[in-house]
Amino acid sequence: MTAGPAFTCVLDARAKLGEGPVWSVDEQALYWVDIKGRALNRFDPATGANRAMALPEEIGCVAPRKGGGFIAGLRSGLWQLDGEGRPVTCLAANPEGQGASRFNDGKTDPAGRYLAGTLDEPKAGGKAHLYRYDRHGLAVLAGGLLTSNGLAFSPDGRTLYHADTPTFTVRRYRYDPATGAISDGEVFFRLEPKDGDRGRPDGAAVDAQGCYWSALYEGGRVARFSPDGGLLSEHPVPARCPTMVAFGGPDLRTLYVTTASAGRPADELERLPQSGGLFAMTVEVPGLPVPPFDPAA
Ligand SMILES: O=C(O)[C@H](O)[C@@H](O)[C@H](O)[C@H](O)CS(=O)(=O)O
Question: What are the residue boundaries of the SMP-30/Gluconolactonase/LRE-like region domain, all occurrences included (predicted)?
């Protein structure tokens, strides 16, 4: 394992719970959300400008939609948003209700289906699930979860990675891009809970060499894992709670990471005043473009 280059702040956003970065190749812009700030954001790296679009409820994840607008995971369910981030149509209600559950991390699959999971807010019952949404509707892929997170695909689209953050575990599944079915789940890696300072696996992305980049919540770093689950390198982030990574830039060699500030202790925010910001670093191995959500998939 090597200590790699560090992230620097590209947007001092002071988000409550920054999450869900996704790069739009068409627009050369980064969309990201502030879950607790109830906003969809568009960051333009060419100008450094960020535009925040307010939402009526928490938004956990988002993806550009083929034909315009977005698909997004809100507390109440999966929604189609228009180009201004306004909810237009509820595509699927949150099957767990809204009392103690909301949509969290999501990602499109190679065919343009949308995978998204929920968060069990009391973090006691393992009531969260991972879902797949396509033209057939919503289907359960996995259950018994606390915080569904860390979705990413291998370069050939045949392996799905998925984290359950509070259990410190990332699993991998065989994925059938033709049907969106998963099988043969196994532990990809599990971090040591007793080593609390090193964080828990949150949002993720895979690079062109098939390595898995994981934002380590409460670990103050992003780590890169080989396709066999070995830790390759660690990259400090000047915020204690990195939440999700995404590759962007013209050559997909900029790795962005969102961070959280909500609920963090005052001394931590004093020491790390850019918590809640958007950070980036240049990487040697590029990422892979994430396809838009395709309503026909
Ligand atoms: O995915 C996220 O960033 C969640 O929305 C966060 O709240 C965070 O991942 C989560 O709280 C971590 S954990 O469930 O407490 O371990």
Answer: 17-260
